[in-house]
Amino acid sequence: MASIAATRVVSTPAVAGLDAFKQRSALCINGGGAAIPTRHSGVAAPLRAGRSSVVRAAARYDLSSFKFEPIQESVVSREMTRRYMMDMITHADTDVVIVGAGSAGLSCAYELSKNPEVKVTIIEQSVSPGGGAWLGGQLFSAMVVRKPAHIFLDEIGVPYDEADDYVVIKHAALFTSTIMSKVLARPNVKLFNAVAAEDLIIKENRVSGVVTNWALVSMNHHTQSCMDPNVMESKVVVSSCGHDGPFGATGVKRLKSVGMIDSVPGMKCLDMNVAEDAIVRLTREVVPGMIVTGMEVAEIDGAPRMGPTFGAMMISGQKAAHLALKALGLPNALEYLNVQPELTLASAEDANTASA
After folding, report:
1. What pLDDT, in 10s, does the model give residues 319-353?
2. Does 197 show up as a binding residue in the annotation?
3. Maximum pairwise Cα distance, the chain
4. Annotation-wise, does 295 bind a ligand?
5. What are the required cofactors (predicted)?
6. Would you say 307 is a known binding-site residue?
7. Residues ≥6 apart with Cβ < 8 Å to 268
8. pLDDT-above-90 percentage for the chain
């Protein structure tokens, strides 16, 4: 296996204080700049900024005498409250609710939001979305992605170092922040973070939405009397709650408790080669109206855990998005492969349980 190509760094001469700032600014204005690695080979390419962008930024304000425009404190409160409440009104019923904004949930939202007619709502119990994708394994920074899932990284524009069978992103947060910025910029997506999905809406044996509450309220039901939840109705629910934990696998565990599925055996011990293929292959609509993706798949099917490699999360999320599009009766890569030719999906199988 070829070793990962080393990153070449080009630095400017060391000049103290303001002189260094002026030198860096001059490099940008004159079209120069530091070098960054390309996403494939690690070979450096120049990073350039045009003269006009630097000049415009410098001309907007004087940092030595900067002053903000005046504002009433009530205006700040009113703007936040009004916009959030309007979002709650708009998304009280939606096309797709994604529960969990980890790497699988965000990948699903990114793929779904390509269709501007699909209203996508993301529920994330944490204040900070991203799940475990802010770091690699054991709090290390780098993120390993096995090929061919690197095609997804190419699409969203995440640079990486390349080896024969896998790629390495220098910091997992680079992936997470990149995909999150793209998802949140889409006008048909709304993320409700610090909000928990406490329960499912089930009508006529079909999942038809989620029951929501502030995450801090959900965590403190035992300390108060009655703190009733709210609801979001949807045509499809995508459950990407991750592996078991305080808020993990809540979708499939609730399905079991109401008798819609027989068991949630839990994920088996680590086997990366079996696990990643199984998670993508077994991503599916488990009951009418509810699709399971990411590590929650391992919980319901007893598939092995995959450890700190993230390609299956991305591709499982993509597949879940196209399953949701199919459920909505819209064009999707599972039925019409020419719609998304760059998407490589695992072969569909009827197996209900992954081999350990």
Report:
1. 999 999 999 999 999 987 544 433 434 333 344 43
2. yes
3. 71
4. yes
5. Fe cation
6. yes
7. 298, 302, 303, 304, 305, 356
8. 73
